[in-house]
Amino acid sequence: MRIGVLCSGGDSPGMNAAIRGAVLRGVEVHGFEMVGFMDGWRGFHEADLVPLDRSAVRGISPLGGVILGTSRVPPFASGDGDAAEWQAIRARMAEYRLDGFLLIGGNGTQTVAKLLTDAGIRAIGLPKTIDNDLGGTDYTFGFDTAVSIASEAIDRLRTTGESHSRCMVLEVMGRNAGWIALHAGMAGGAQVTLIPEHPESIEQISEWVLSVRDRGRSSLVVVAEGFTLEGADGEVTREGLDGFGRPRLGGVAEMLAPLIEERTGIETRATVLGHVQRGGSPTAFDRVLATRTGIAAADAAHAGRWGTMAGLHGDRIDLVPLHEAVGRLKTVPDARYEEVRLNFG
Question: Per the UniProt record, which EC number(s) apply here (predicted)?
Answer without folding.
Answer: 2.7.1.11
